[in-house]
Amino acid sequence: MIMSDIIIIGGGILGASTAYHLAKLGNNVTVIDKEEPGSATDAAAGIICPWISQRRNKVWYSLAVKGAGYYPALIHELKQDGITNTGYKKTGALVIRTEKKQAERLFKLAEERQADAKEIGAISFLSPNQIAKHMPVLSEQYFGVHLEGGARVDGKLLKQSLIDAAKKYGAKFHVGEAKLKNNSSHLEVLLNDEKMKADQIVLTNGAWLPDLIKATHPICKVKAQKAQISHIHVKNHETDEWPVVIPAGTKYIVPFSNGKIVVGTTHEDEHQFNTNVTAKGLHEILHQALHIAPGLAKAELVETKVGFRPAAPNFLPVFGRLPGYQEVYLANGLGSSGLTTGPFLGKELAAFITNQSMELDPNDYNVSCLFEE
């Protein structure tokens, strides 16, 4: 295989994973990230449990399941590279519903999907009393389904793990704003107005893609969705082994060690990249969190983070070549499943760029939908 000079613009979870896998293949990799406030990866606390999703898009579900299934292998690879503090831990997932029949339907759904996803692990139906043993701060109104294979991940820690591992294989990282210059039939990368050598360019800068390519592609249908996510601290509880909690709707509870609990999230489409924490957003998060888990009422509010998720049409991630430029690749649109799909998609993008065998069919995730009028 011919080794290439590859520049990656955007160093979130997707860019970091792509850099790691490309560098491990022997390529000369340089990552440029301007560390823009509002990074989706840095704000996120990930729930790795796609198997009970009721989204009807089978292509998305296939990607999410492959993404969840890839984690054990990735964590093992990183451990071999000397990286152990990855932010990932399999704690199980607790899916809760107020109606027993709803919980029973989810139990059956998980059983059906287990045939094609052994990583789900053991599946248990839980009564309200049994739920209290797993998660004592929850309301007593819930029935639940416990999935042994569910996991949590700290996005910022995992991203840094991938960056540190990529550096071990020679990857370089620069903080700064990259720009693209159209030079007849190809694009050039400028960093601080200095041209950088690149055989291939990879665009993984998430919600900021439209601004980066506006000179050559004035229509780019990546939308930024604002998320506010609160971190709280509870005393007198050992939280490290608590499962992630998935209620109905868009809210969640993700326990970490030492009393740290992350609750989220908002989905805001009107924001103009404003990173302010808002009273409305904070009320929405905490009101729902305390309804689900009244035992958190006396917890300390530590901080609220803001991130901007990149959403593509139909909320389906895409990857491939930038139209009109054979040497430029992109991946985008991970949305709220970025920490589930990002590491795996980075591996697949690296394989696509280097003509290696792939698990995904690129035609299912075609980038053309971003540029259609």
From TrEMBL:
Residue ranges of domain FAD dependent oxidoreductase in the record: 5-351
Short name of one Pfam family: DAO
Cited InterPro entries: FAD-dep_OxRdtase (IPR006076), FAD/NAD-bd_sf (IPR036188)
Signal peptide coordinates: none
GO molecular function: oxidoreductase activity
One annotated Gene Ontology cellular component of this protein: cytoplasm
Top-level taxon of origin: Bacteria
Swiss-Prot/TrEMBL cofactor(s): FAD
Keywords: Flavoprotein, Oxidoreductase
Family of this protein: Belongs to the DadA oxidoreductase family.
Protein name: D-amino acid dehydrogenase small subunit
Originating organism: Saliterribacillus persicus
Phylogenetic lineage: Bacteria, Bacillati, Bacillota, Bacilli, Bacillales
